[in-house]
Design goal:
- This protein is of the alpha+beta class.
- Among the domains are: 90 residues, no CATH class; 45 residues, no CATH class.
- It contains 5 helices and 9 strands; from the N terminus they run ααββααββββββαβ.
- A 5-stranded antiparallel β-sheet has the order 1-2-3-4-5.
- Helix 3 packs antiparallel against helix 4.
- The two termini are 38 Å apart.
Amino acid sequence: MQIKTKTKVRLTYRNLEERPVDPTQFNDPMALETEWTPLSTGASNFATHKLKRVSAERLEYRPAAPTIALFLIFPIAGILLLLYTFLKEMSSLGLILGLAFTVGGLLLLYYQTAPYVFDKQEGLYYKGRNAKDKQPDIENPKKTVPLDSIYAVQILEKVVYSNNSYYAYDINLVLKNKKRMLFISHTKKDRIKEDAREIADFLGVPVWDPLV
């Protein structure tokens, strides 16, 4: 049984190959000067966010229900532990652990479920709940960039290597200075393509989609 399992893993690993992209298909000199390698090696195996057009001036990428449920596990576990401590077995360790899970879990939920926002009124793309005190750095883009610095929306396919390797898909924001910023990464190809088109339409920029 062990030999068969190992053979199956090797075959899965070998059959998934990175497929190169020919950027000339986009008829854009900028595409030839842009990198076409993934910015990250990992990806979620489900669509973590949903795109919502809040207004003509604002587009938000909000956490989907599975993402919220995932981060609710910690505060719920903390609350249950506190209830058990108070009702069944009063102990300082149970109280400390319950408070730690509850408070830490709520903080994790707050920060990890913050939306990604394209705000034309502020002229910014940023990760967070508001644009106050967010300083864009287009030389080292991580969380905030001016909207007018975004040149295109890039889609990439990649292989996430593991014992059960799988294909995943990235949306990157390509800046006018040829820097790239990873927007989202997961395994749902159709959702990636749909979201990339909507973002590009909102920004009035091209979408570079090499996927067929």
